[in-house]
Amino acid sequence: MAEHRSMQRAALLDAARSLLSEGGTEALTFPALAERTGLARSSVYEYFRSRAAVVEELCEVDFPVWAAEVETAMERAASGEGKVEAYVRHQLALVGDRRHRAVVAISASELDAGAREKIRAAHGGLVAMIVEALAELGHEQPRLAAMLVQGVVDAAVRRIELGAAEDPTVITEAAVAMALRGVRG
User: Fold this and answer.
1) How many Å from the N-terminal Cα to the C-terminal Cα in the chain?
2) Of 50, 84, 102, 140, which residue is least crowded by CB atoms under 10 Å?
């Protein structure tokens, strides 16, 4: 029984990823989840109390995986600048990933204060990765610089998500260049 519930929960999360990827937060509804998984709408409520709970769980499951991928890319870099570049480039490469869509959906979702705090803490862990690289580069205020680098990443993510006139590769290269010039200064 527990295995069945676990499989159903995983199917619901996978369906939620697809819905978020295809239509954003508005597409993530309990009727749509029920249709995608073949469950009755009332059964979806047995697993999640609200749409916000679905997004929160997606973030709890997907964000650590996403952060580990960014960290691995940074660890492969040989220099502090290489780590900064990997940090920016890998986050932007994940924009099209369905797991990333769930993380991006947070800002548009009606999460409670506790959920937002958990997600802020997880995001803080991502930013902490770059603080060390910036300190290695001799930056006087690595924490501040890390927050600003993440701001560049966030702006580039929004630009790519909007389907801007620029190709995502152009946006990525501009964000990498801006981050690297900024951390050198």
Assistant:
1) 58
2) 140
